[in-house]
Task: structure prediction
Amino acid sequence: MNLCVIGAGYVGLITALCFGKKENKVICVEKDSNKLRLLKNGVPTIFEEGLDELLKESLIKDSVLFTDDLALSIKSSDIIFIAVGTPTKENWDVDVSQVEQVIDLISPYIDKYKVVVTKSTVPVGTQKYIKRKLLENNVPREYFDVVSNPEFLREGKAIDDFFNGDKIVVGCDSIKAKDIMKNLYESFKIKMVFASPETAELIKYTSNALLSVKISFINEIANLCNKVGADIDVIAYALGLDKRISPLFLNAGIGYGGSCFPKDTKALVKISENYNCELKIVKSTVDVNEKQRVLPVSILSEHYNELEGKMVAILGLTFKPDTDDIREAPSLYIIEKLLEAKVKVKAYDPMASPEIRKIFPDIIYCDDAYECLVGTDAMIICTEWSEFLNIDLFKVKELMRESVIIDGRNMLDTKKIIQAKIKAYYSIGKGNIKS
Ligand code: UGA
Result:
């Protein structure tokens, strides 16, 4: 099929390349000239497993064309995917201005029947809005249908999720468009869910919200575990044995981050408020997460009555391992609070994007974990990078001024903590150890 993907951000780029791999002819439109130049030269603009090879292959096979020529792209495509950003505003409303702009820009070039698809996460009612807007822009009704086809890709696993995900959701109110979408995804061995546009739009938010609820729930229980002397890992294991619950997304820690859960939970709360239908559980999930992500600072404040002048090492800056993405990472909020308390911060991450240096230009960035620990009064593990798993705790004790460890991802072996006589070890729901 002839496809066009507007926006070569995370979702757009993966969508374009993966559809290209499936023998479609894809045009990916990007207005950022720097991004465009890199992609045309086969240089990935984001870090994602398998992306490098996929991009190079698509250029060799000529299956994906990167361009800024919107007119040509729209005219020569049967399906147009909108994959531009939909960030959250200060008041938690979704900022759909980029989607609005795209509709205005593409309208003049819709010269025969095309399916316009939203891939971006958009608020309920957006499909209807786009239909209205296209008509207002004088696009004849018989020239288009609008479909909601949200993505469910995880960063780091996006390509695999695209080809082998759990579900493909298609929200539309036209049999013609439904058949075209069915055809497009025919070779995917993934269950398809056909729904109304409003239902599809809400499935995306509900999916991310429910996963966030699971995380905030287990984190609250973890906090209780520390008070009553229970072990959250054993509780999570036992819970996970119940097939109705599933063992996934029950890892307690310092909360969720990234470009999706924080944004989508807030957006869902706002959408519900706009419809006068409060979602108390999702609202609480956001509140719990905002408190949880700075929990290490409260632990530290209790350990040392005065934080001013202390030196703290942050191990892991990204919102999860195997990505360079720092968006909404708990580390950002922790560093901010530590700096407010006049703490000296050192940081190490195997991969964090250089963006972090723009946010915190005055902290000390180190090239490895051990260097980061030298002379510090505490270390906080914010991301469960595998290299931290086998950190030599005897060396850790030797390098730190005071070996106080806050394990925000419950990843260190408590037996080794005891053997190394670490001065104080704080976990999230697995108890604390003091020597
Ligand atoms: C998430 C969803 O998992 C995808 O299905 C969805 O498509 C995507 O958002 C999106 O909306 O685009 P992603 O943000 O890449 O994907 O990250 P996840 O792997 O889901 O992790 C999110 C956060 O939850 C991370 O900060 C992670 O550390 C945290 N988490 C996850 C926990 O704290 N505990 C867990 O048990 C699992």
In short: The chain is about 45% helix and 15% strand. Residues 2-195 form a domain with the Rossmann fold fold (CATH 3.40.50.720).
